[in-house]
Amino acid sequence: MRKTLTAITIFFILTIILLSALAYSLLTDISYKEGFKLKEKTIMQNRRTIKIGVVSRYSPSLILDGYQPVIDYLSENTPYEFSLVLSKDYNDTVKQLKEGKITFAFLGDMVFVKNMEKERLIPVVCPVNKDGKPFLKAVAIVRENATIKNFCQLKDKTIALPSPSSFSYRWGILKAKECGISVSVKQFSFHHTVVLQVLNGVCDGGVVREYVAKEFEKKGIKIIDYSPSIPSPPLVALSSIDKNLLQTVRNTLLKFKPEKSESSIDREFYYGFTVPSPKIYINFQKYLKEKGIYL
Amino acid sequence: MRRNFFSSIKTKLFILLGFTVSIVLFSIFLYFSFAWKKLLVSNFVNGIKSTARAFSVDVKNRLILKKNKLEKSEDILAGEILSFLKDEKEAIFVAVYSPNGKLIVSSKKMDYSNIENEKSLPAIENISVRIYKNSDGKWIGECYYPIKSGNEKLGILHIGMNASFLEKEVRFVFKMFFVSILFILLFMLGLIYFLTDKFTSSLLEVSSLLENIDVEKGKYIKFPQYNDEAGLISVKLNEFQDRIRIAREKLLNAERKILQAEKLAGIGRLASGIAHEINNPLNGIKHCITLIKENPKDLEKNEKYLSLIEEGIDYISDIVNKLLEFSRSSTYDNKKVSLNKAIESVLSLMDYKLSKEGITVKNNLGEKEFLVFGNKILIQEVIMNVIHNSIDALKQSNDKTIEILAENKNGKVILTITDYGIGIDEKNLSKIFDPFFTTKPVGEGTGLGLYVSMGILKNIKGDIKVSSEKGKFTEVKIFLKKED
């Protein structure tokens, strides 16, 4: 009995010591590996690459993340391979379109109206708003806790405006003139920068597209004024485009229904596309002329 | 009483509970150590992923601009990488690869012996992290962060961070847990020891009290009352002691009765001899009285006859006194006894029987007096029982001699009584002290003589041993405590 118990005790203590040493050895080995899944080699089909131009209104990554889902959708649902080509401004994009370096381009409505006749551009599709209409609005924004209730109360205030080639910029200037107020203007390249400048108090107010403002509406921004509805910025092509390609792209994008929750897609495309009537852009052109906005 | 340490309940309980607690604590230690390590590694991995994710935003912009030929991004990327390395103290290197794994820019010192491998990377599909020990024995954490937009793959960001501190933290955690568990274990073992000691203390107390019981001396213990199981044992032991006490008293009474009965039986065996011893002087007395009656005036002769009568009466009186003394119901009062006188007294009572059987007793005690501790009457009874047996054994023998010898040895007086009679069968030697064992014809022996003798001697710390050879001799050694 005594010998057995002694043997068991010694065995137990030795086991604990050995297990401790083993545990120490295992614990201090902090080797780790996760992932390393290699890309499967896919047989690349010889597909024609169609390039679509876009102006880098925001940071390049934001633009790419916002537009790439549409490009991926087109590549997956047509016999063509689509790719985005970024440019620094609209004029470069129009130039690339004209020179055939790109086949399609996402243009701002102001740029399209300015160039549609001169460069023989046609609208392929344009995004719709939540009512399914091909229109959008520019809106005046202030901070949520500001006492300002409409644009005219921005007298002698500093307002942030996006690119001068955008309708939002032009409407901001026009609205200040209509209110007969003087404002100090700070101009930024991107709509999102305008919102952030208002949000962090650098500027008292600003003008951006409605869907950009809506993104921040419950995050410290409130809308105090709306512009009249203007046509959505279209995806354009030269009128000389291959009609089959045009029809394929149109038909495919008309069926586009993005998964909002899962995608980083630009809010502009949340509700899909429609084929706009050229007439809405002609009417918009007339409106601008009436308001003395020269392109 | 010597206790076996390993077979005690306390030890068993301590070892059992100690093993269990040790195993449980060790399992807890292992579980928490590995869980903590997992947490530390997971934090590091998340940290390196977050760092890569944050830095990838800048890299992504640069890669997009590079792809669209809007700027020469290698210069800007290199600047951003160096700036990142400056800010991120634990970062070791940063490299940017194209989607198909070609190196664009890197802060790594190239291994020129393996430069082709260093300049290209397998096309990794998802965010991948690994922690490994490099050739210098340092732990490195690496993250491969594929930069993409939708399905468009723009490149792979590769960041390396120092992970040696992680190993130090894991070591520290292990040591901290190990020491903590060790202290807890020691505390638990101490607690278990204390509790087992507490739980078994009443049993140990009962055990130690049991050692004080001496039934032979009539020493009993009153066991205390406990509230646990030991209390039940106490109650039962107290009851058991009462039963033993009563049984012992009954046994002692029975022994006394047996002793008395055996004594009376002995007297019965002496009766004819004693009657003969008394009858001889009585006949003399009667003859003297007759002579006095015939010649009452012969004063000179009558005086002589009266003197003979007185002598006869003294003789009878002496025999009767010895008989009375022997037949008295004895107590166990022990004192100094002269073994010589006790033998003489016995031989005197048995004189007639010895003479009748023609047995010669060689009393070799001589002048030297042997003093022993005991009760004279009981010692006489022992001697008488042995001599009775010798007389019976010598009935068929030619050499009718009984030898009596005494010697002092090792604080004892050894009285040896030897006869050369029929001896004892070897098979019966082991039974001669059993009560009621006898080989004598019915009516001649009770079978209690040696049994009673053994009881008497045990009571005075003495002993009796018998050696015999069938048909040759029987030697009885009586050991008595020497008294100075």
Domain count of chain A, please report it: 2
Q: Uncertain spans of chain B, ≥5 residues at pLDDT below 50?
A: none
Quick one: CATH class of the largest domain in chain B? Alpha Beta
Main-sheet strand order of chain B equals: 2-1-5-4-3
Largest sheet of chain A: 6 strands, mixed
Q: Helix- and strand-based class of chain A?
A: alpha/beta
**What's the Cα radius of gyration of chain A?**
29 Å
- Into which percentage range does the β-strand content of chain B fall? 15-25%
Q: What is the number of helices of chain A?
A: 9
- Strand line-up in the sheet with most strands of chain A: 3-2-4-13-5-14
Largest interface: A-B, 44 and 51 residues
The H-level CATH homologous superfamily of the largest domain in chain A, spelled out, is Periplasmic binding protein-like II
Mean pLDDT of chain A: 89
**Alpha plus pi helix count of chain B:** 10
**Structural class by helix and strand composition of chain B:** alpha+beta
Radius of gyration of chain B: 55 Å
Tertiary shape of chain A: flat
CATH architectural group of the largest domain in chain A: 3-Layer(aba) Sandwich
Percent helix of chain A, as a range, is 25-40%
Order of helices and strands of chain B: HHEEHEEEHHHEHEEHEEHHEE
Secondary structure layout plus pairing:
The complex is a heterodimer of chains A (295) and B (484).
Chain A: H1 2-28, E1 32-34, E2 49-55, H2 60-77, E3 81-87, H3 90-98, E4 104-106, H4 109-115, E5 121-127, E6 135-136, E7 138-143, E8 158-161, H5 167-179, E9 184-187, H6 191-199, E10 205-209, H7 210-215, E11 221-226, E12 230-231, E13 235-238, H8 243-254, E14 273-274, H9 278-290
Parallel strand pairs in A: 2-3, 2-4, 8-9, 8-10
Antiparallel strand pairs in A: 4-13, 5-13, 5-14, 6-12, 7-10, 7-11
Helix pairs in contact in A: 4-9
Chain B: H1 9-67, H2 73-87, E1 91-97, E2 103-106, H3 115-118, E3 128-133, E4 139-149, E5 152-162, H4 164-210, H5 229-294, H6 299-327, E6 335-338, H7 339-356, E7 360-363, E8 371-374, H8 376-393, E9 401-409, E10 412-419, H9 426-429, H10 449-459, E11 463-469, E12 473-481
Parallel strand pairs in B: 7-9
Antiparallel strand pairs in B: 1-2, 1-5, 3-4, 4-5, 6-8, 9-10, 10-12, 11-12
Helix pairs in contact in B: 1-2, 1-4, 5-6, 5-7, 7-8, 8-10
